[in-house]
Specification:
Chains A, B: Keywords: DNA-binding, Repressor, Transcription, Transcription regulation. Chains A, B: Pfam families: TetR_C_6, TetR_N. The structure is a homodimer of 193-residue chains. Chain A is mainly α. Chain A has 2 domains: 70 residues, Homeodomain-like (Arc Repressor Mutant, subunit A, Orthogonal Bundle), CATH 1.10.10; 122 residues, Tetracycline Repressor, domain 2. Helix content of chain A is 72%, strand content 0%. Chain A contains 10 helices and no strands. The first copy, chain A, binds a DNA duplex (18 and 18 nucleotides) through helix 3.
Chain lengths: 193, 193
DNA sequence: GTCTATATCTTGATAGAC
DNA sequence: GTCTATCAAGATATAGAC
């Protein structure tokens, strides 16, 4: 209308930078990737990139937040209950086998961000706490419906499932012939009544 | 005798370098650690360090091989059968909770080494293949003795257990209040007949 | 066996032109 | 919004003295 659609001028460039940065961080981690390298792969110089994202850490956080939005973690996750959420995790693993870049990104970064000095440390602490809580709730709901094998503690099962998914990603990245979803499905299947 | 015991002159320095390098790689990963930093922490200059280990990649591989020897992977592992090997893994997890440096080293490096261009890539591909094979054999022996719950495939169970251990390490590094051994024990316990 | 000194490259970030 | 030019700091590695 009377205004300027100038707000998202350069939105295309921003998106290109974020896509490229995701791929680069995935391949070599945050520490192993240079701002110059990302900029070059975008057809930019590095000052041009730093115009859009003032620091390298800002760029990393933008990549992570963008993926959170795209994945719709808040949306598609909060709505799922009980076994449906567990099924969703298996489906996600199957989906991830088709996008090695995303798997590499999280596998590499979650290990790197273990260091309290890493710019994404707080992000991953929160991420895991939230994920465990969601999965624990799902297990508790399954148990309430009588669908869980006796003797299984929801909180423990949640930690195990999240850990299993992470560990399988590393094995899969080292040897892509392994089927992540199959192993997860077998694990969850063995826990249901 | 008639010779020179000069062979292990400087062996003390080598050992000091390897210990320090392990700690440094554990804290910041391979890519995030500089040779200068390791040398300084040893009270050396970096050319002095590079006299003992010609390149940074050589140093990393020496650290890994030294730990393989110290841990006696070949020795203590090849001798264990069936449930005893699985118990040993639980015991190792309990032990690891007392040496975060080692956990950090392997968690960080195994993710980093996912990149085929990483100097330790081949090492970790082999390491995981061997570990899975040993654990699968242990599950098969347990099954043969009638100790495994029906419907559990040894090879799948091995991949799951190795993955669980890896994933729990990341969660533990992000939140050391979590008990790794407990979660592993619960998992294995649920698989035995 | 360890040093000083240095070569060479790459890094993240800034200044200022266009 | 993107550039050139530049900075200061860090990296790996080598040469050669002691």
């Amino acid at each position: 209308m009377s205004g300027h659609e100038l707000t998202d001028r350069g939105a295309g460039t921003r998106a290109l930078i974020l896509d490229t940065a995701l791929a680069a961080f995935a391949e070599s981690g945050y520490r192993g990737t240079s701002v110059r390298d990302i900029a070059t792969r975008c057809g930019l110089t590095h000052p041009a990139l730093l115009y859009h994202f003032p620091t390298k850490a800002d760029l990393l956080m933008a990549v992570l937040r963008r993926r959170d939005d795209a994945e719709g973690r808040a949306a598609g996750f909060a709505d799922l209950r009980g076994a449906a959420l567990l099924d969703h995790l298996v489906a996600t693993a199957r989906l991830n086998a088709g996008r090695p870049g995303v798997v590499e990104l999280y596998a590499t970064l979650s290990a790197e961000a273990t260091d309290p000095g890493h710019p994404a440390h707080a992000y991953f602490v929160d991420r895991y706490a939230n994920l465990r809580a969601s999965v624990a709730r799902a297990y508790a709901e399954v148990a309430h419906d009588g669908g869980l094998r006796p003797g299984i503690d929801p909180a423990t099962a949640a930690r195990q499932l999240v850990a299993l998914m992470d560990g399988l990603q590393i094995q899969w990245l080292l040897d892509p012939s392994l089927d992540m979803a199959e192993a997860i499905e077998a694990h969850v299947g063995a826990q249901l009544a």
